[in-house]
Write a structure and sequence with these properties.
Largest sheet: 9 strands, mixed
Shape: globular
Helix content: 25-40%
Radius of gyration: 21 Å
Amino acid sequence: MANLLIANALIVPMTEPATAFSGYLRLRDGVITAVNSGGPQQARLVEQTIDASGCVLMPGLVNAHTHLYQVLLRAVWEDLPLMPWLQRIYGCARVLTPGHCYSGSLLGCAEAIRGGVTTLCEHNFLNPSPECAFETLRAIQASGLRAVFARTIMDSGEIVPDCTKEKPEQAFRHIEALIARHKEASQLTFMTGPNTPPINTSDDLLREVRRFADEKAIGISAHVAESHSVVEAVRREHGKNGVVEYLSEFGLAAPNSIFAHSVHVSQDEIKILQETGTSVSHNPVSNMMLGDGVAPVVEMLRQGVNVALGTDGAASNHSQDLFDTMKAASLLQKVHHQNAGVIDPYSVLRMATVGGAKALGLGEVCGTIEVGKRADLILLNMDAVHNQPLNNVYSQIVHCAKASDVQTVIVNGEILMRDRKLMRLDERKILADAKAANRDLMERVGRLTF
């Protein structure tokens, strides 16, 4: 792991208050050791140097909710609301193989790196065999990304194939095996959770998930209140006003929980999120593509809820691009509230960095540029014509910059991409393998009935 000097950068540290300054950064053994304005007196003999002239140096982006293998399903099912779409996604489990999971997930990781993501949360919920999760993890580790693997559980539901339904004790054994095999993986942590309560989870599962997460000291990830249909189910079947209210009765709203989507939540439920310290992953592009609605992000932020950003899977987004996600998150709130000033660019950028790190329990590790934190960093080319002239760095990162502007990606001190070239991964092979996996998966899916 190289000692590195990054000089001549416009540094956006994402620490409070909002600041940006020209300066340099040093890292050693994967840790940031110096962040200063101006230029270094001299490069040290043991240092590798990157000249960041014309670039913003900022924390790597945190994708707080995705399903990596779904890059194999880009643009397969269009123009469907959530429940019919889920029926097809779940149905894939009947033909999904560990090989599909590996090839798709590795392509998803390559796309994430190319778009400036240094940390992601893989919300893993389709496991027709235990090896599917292991192969997804093998891909993530091969990529060099920092990751949280949320191995979630379904134990009921009419549209859930039997091959993915699990009794809690069975699922917990599989999760324990995952944790045991990866206990030395320093860039990997774990979560569990009910996948999409209540449409595919029982009350007994919710109770057992809380107990198991406490026992193993891991967090919880769940799809929450993504569509009206899910809220209607919790009202009809459980007599609760909303999904957050329902989950809070089982202790699942908590500081180590991340509720993905949270589109249809009431003011009272936002208060529950705030009081319990529960984080939310806002996935605006996916929500728009599925016609789910507009999450009350502004109201959450005003009440002190920690909000992160996620792409969701490419089957309902078509990409793993967090720059697209940031712009959508900003503009969607402005048009929804019919107020151009209702959310500011810095707040959006915080969701994609600081908010994501906090939501995933990594706030002491990454999300800001500070001495002592791990070196999870990106260099963003702001000399590109669509980024110039540079008047407001925060607004232009959120509203102008593109994933293709990411020049260099560093995770834990390792350079994963430099000058747009992947350093660890063979991109040509990844693409060839993913295309073959897609052909095989589509042939198998074509024989299914939904």
